[in-house]
Amino acid sequence: MCTSKVKNEFIKQPTGSEEIxxxxxxxxxxxxxxxxxxxxxxxxxxxxxxxxxxxxAKMVSKPGAAPMNATSEQYNFFGSYTRLFLMKASKMxxxxxxxxxxxxxxxxxxxxxKARWSTPVSDYKEIDGRRIPTYDETIWNYTEGDFTxxxxxxxxxxxxxxx
Length: 163
Fold this sequence. Notes:
Elements: H1 3-12, H2 23-26, H3 31-39, E1 50-59, E2 68-77, E3 82-91, E4 94-99, E5 106-108, E6 111-113, E7 116-118, E8 121-127, E9 130-142, E10 145-159
Antiparallel strand pairs: 1-2, 1-10, 2-3, 3-4, 5-6, 7-9, 8-9, 9-10
């Protein structure tokens, strides 16, 4: 995945020494956020400096269209927040790669337009002692109705990784 960009982020944001997340670290957060953090089982675990995530995805270009299967790899860095995302897929038997662009418009009824979106998550599983959602959808919330354009299934997640 964008090897030079990933390498540059690891150089700019090394993992450094381990820090453990404790109750004091989250006491300033709103109660629903604290409860979610506690539910996820991360209290007493290493604070993430970065994470590498791989997914299987299904994407739909417009309502009623057949889904396109894809795989993706994502690196998140938390010191100076950076997200690097690469998707591999094929459409009409032509392989391609695409990087993620936040807030991009989506095609619906033949036109491009911006809309709010939501990302409900589910199917929590315990991975490395943390409760992590392993399924999510991205839903464009159009005035004429919601459109689920992407589903992701988590394949692997590694916190505080190196190249």
